[in-house]
Specification:
It holds the Pfam family DAO. By secondary structure, this protein is mainly α. The protein is built from four helices and two strands; from the N terminus they run αααββα. It is 30% helix and 6% strand.
């Protein structure tokens, strides 16, 4: 009987996952995307006409199986907090995530209920165990 991932036509468990096939440790910026972004920025903000891109970079987009970030203190490593899986939204939600991180590390009342960000939620996820991905 096929595994749930196979039934949903994601991939066969005896094959590399999409993440394994596409993982690049030092990705190069896509020049076409950089050019398009500059052009769109100049259209939206005419004051940027004549601006040039001097440097660009690329990075990972990390994600969790359910698409929600993990911000959680470790149950086994005292003082260790994991904040990951922001799926490219880290720049936008970074300040609020950092506030929650600070609250959890200092013992302050959290700015939001941290339950939804706990790592343990992935152990019971309908997506399967993280190790299966």
């Amino acid at each position: 009987m096929p595994a749930p991932q196979e039934m949903r036509s994601r991939w066969a468990l005896d094959r590399p996952t999409p993440m394994e096939r596409h993982r690049i440790l030092d990705p190069k910026p896509n020049a076409s995307i950089v050019k398009t972004t500059l052009e769109r920025s100049q259209t939206l903000l005419p004051a940027l006409q004549g601006a040039k891109v001097l440097t660009s970079w690329a990075g990972f987009i990390d994600s969790t199986p359910d698409g929600v970030s993990v911000i959680d203190l470790s149950d086994t490593l005292p003082g260790f907090l994991l904040a990951a899986g922001f799926s490219g939204h880290g720049f936008g939600i970074g300040p609020a995530a950092d506030h929650l991180v600070a609250d959890l590390l200092t013992g302050a009342t959290p700015i939001v209920d941290p339950t939804q960000f706990r790592l343990s939620r992935l152990r019971a996820s309908s997506w399967g165990k993280v190790a299966e991905f």
